[in-house]
């Protein structure tokens, strides 16, 4: 049987004046909850009741509706929460309340109000040090939502809040140590949002001071591995690909400073693992599953920057081999299309455009490897690509890179020719 509270939420027979905006939700139901939050004398007892949790959980769902958010704003719900939150000790209730604020902060007008409430912001940001994973998920969602809509003045406030609670250290601790998949994904999204909105010209110094720490990439790659390797079977395809893309974006942000190599030299092996997982995934997607994904173009471009800054020239299987396999797949696709295929005319044009765009970063990545790898690894890979090297080189527009690689290949071929002539003699 439905509870009285549940019936109050959405009742087709309710008085027209009781509905919130264009929704079917009841004003009376919401006002009852707000009254309970306002009465601090009875609130501690109220939150022990299952019915209270049920009611605010329903309210949480309701806050996906803009009209409900505006109704709550009209009744200054953030002020009520500001007074109520410090006396609430039940983690589930805290999670729901922060979740409600997070939903409300999808509206810019709510963010503007919240950013002027120093006390509530200080209370909220302190929850970054909680050990409750579900509370952390909602807090990180809230912070990300606010940053996404923030202007420069509001980002300044967030940067100061981050410093006040050592936010980055807490965030990196979560990434390094948590095994809670949803928390890790939310934490990665949060760090990516921080990078996108705070690593700007105006806040670059503060971002560097607070977030660019030696253990940052180790924490990132630990979370990445937990999700994409250990928890891969439990992740949807969309989430898996999202994690891969934003992880590379985060690495790009951290290696974009003058001393990046010195800062992250100790993390190179972990970054190589991340790159390998991403490239192998997209290699399988194209080579095995025959799926065209334009994200691969940006992934390769990001990888080029990362391997250049961190001077990554590991064994061929780490990133050279998947890159070469993807190159071969594009060649096979072109040949298949030439000989006749099942592609419609529109699909063919899209396919040609994709290959034209993806071949340049593929070529650059392979030439970077050929130009900088150790002698032993160079001899191993040049034997593989020697017959298609000239074709690869035509896609490289970076003259210093092309020249450096060509010198090495020419030297190798000259030496090989001399050995051959000696054998003939």
From TrEMBL:
UniProt lineage: Eukaryota, Metazoa, Ecdysozoa, Arthropoda, Hexapoda
Organism: Spodoptera exigua
Name of the protein: Protein SAAL1
Protein location: Nucleus
Keywords: Nucleus
Keyword Nucleus: yes
Major location category of this protein: nucleus
Recorded family membership: Belongs to the SAAL1 family.
Entry-linked InterPro entries: ARM-type_fold, Synovial_Prolif_Regulator
GO cellular component annotations of the record: nucleoplasm
